[in-house]
Write a structure and sequence with these properties.
Layout (H helix, E strand, L loop, with lengths): L11 E4 L1 H5 L9 H12 L5 E6 L12 H7 L7 E5 L3 H9 L4 E7 L2 H8 L3 H18 L3 E7 L12 H13 L4 E6 L6 H11 L8 E5 L6 H10 L4 E4 L19 H11 L7 H9 L1 H5 L7 H4 L10 H4 L2
Parallel strand pairs: 1-2, 1-8, 2-3, 3-4, 4-5, 5-6, 6-7, 7-8
Helix pairs in contact: 2-3, 4-6, 8-9, 10-11
């Protein structure tokens, strides 16, 4: 059966390069360049862009200009601009800068949460409660909460799936609409993903669930397909495959946006994202960042980008 003759639900791609992609870059990317990148992504068909974060400049110096970025981007109707916030102060700054959605992060692993957030999981949940009340009382912004290391922790190893489910239930009970399951260091495998996604979808509507995969061990796109087939419909990805958690040993980039969109295009799964624009943007990243990026499609080209037949073949 030709997959293009089969109806597939839209796979929603949330672009995270401006935040998760740039946070680990050693070279400072100017504020104007960040804004230009986000503005360009806004015209590529995305409905959701994680545009920056409001963390301490000491913790993530590469994103210390979050206020200026959110205040100066050219907002496009129909695009939700998401901000990562670590605490109440960060939430206040994000709301003042007109973020449409706040993403809160807590690890399923106590050890990783202490490394990443400098506090216990219990303290993180208490801080989340303060943010939920702030948003509920003062803003129309929506809330999303991520379960980091949901598929494995580089310090603790295997994470009990029941613990992940309990955290998801807690988030929902607190009034947090959106949930992200994050494979923070690329430890997930497709069978594990399908099993956990199916359990979470018993509690969370597909429209409110995001999967965040890293390609650390080469399974990123396989995990996307496993999650999609289990009913998930929204996925984080980063242009060029940029990113990685600065507080997790061995972490490498997110799944690559253009590679993901190309896979979907080849399989007949709609995304609404302009692949030509993505490729142009991705091919400009080495000049912006000063190094090559992990994405494959920008190097190899699409299947339809055929090459000239060699002269010697024409003479045979």
């Amino acid at each position: 059966m030709n997959p293009r003759d089969t109806h597939f639900d839209t796979l929603v791609v949330q672009e995270v390069a401006p935040r998760d992609g740039l946070q680990i870059e050693p070279t400072w990317v100017d504020t104007a360049d960040k804004i230009a990148l986000i503005d360009a992504l806004s015209t590529a068909g995305f409905t959701r862009i994680e545009a920056g974060s409001f963390v301490s400049p000491k913790a993530i110096p590469a994103l210390r200009d979050g206020d200026a970025v959110f205040q100066q981007i050219a907002r496009r109707p129909g695009v939700i601009y998401v901000a990562l916030v670590p605490n109440l102060k960060g939430a206040e700054r994000a709301l003042a800068s007109r973020a449409d959605e706040l993403n809160l992060v807590m690890s399923a692993s106590q050890t990783h949460n202490r490394a990443n957030m400098r506090m216990s999981c219990e303290a993180s949940l208490t801080a989340f409660g303060d943010i939920v009340r702030l948003v509920r009382d003062t803003s129309r912004a929506t809330l999303n909460a991520s379960v980091a290391t949901a598929f494995g922790c580089p310090f603790e190893g295997t994470i009990d799936e029941d613990r992940v489910i309990a955290i998801v239930d807690t988030y929902r009970e607190m009034g947090i609409e959106g949930i992200t399951l994050a494979d923070t260091t690329g430890m997930a495998n497709p069978r594990q993903v399908a099993r956990l996604v199916a359990r979470v979808l018993e509690r969370v509507p597909a429209a409110a669930l995001t999967l965040h995969f890293h390609n650390t061990r080469g399974l990123g796109l396989a995990n996307v397909l496993a999650a999609y087939e289990a009913g998930a419909r929204r996925f984080d990805a980063a242009l060029g495959g940029l990113g990685g958690c600065p507080f997790a040993p061995g972490a490498s980039g997110n799944i690559c946006t253009e590679d993901l969109v190309n896979m979907c295009d080849e399989m007949g799964i709609p995304t609404g994202v302009d692949l030509e624009k993505l490729l142009a943007l991705s091919r400009g990243l080495p000049a912006l960042l000063g190094h090559e990026v992990p994405g494959q499609l920008a190097k190899a080209g699409r299947n339809r980008d055929l090459h000239p037949v060699p002269d010697y073949v024409l003479q045979i």
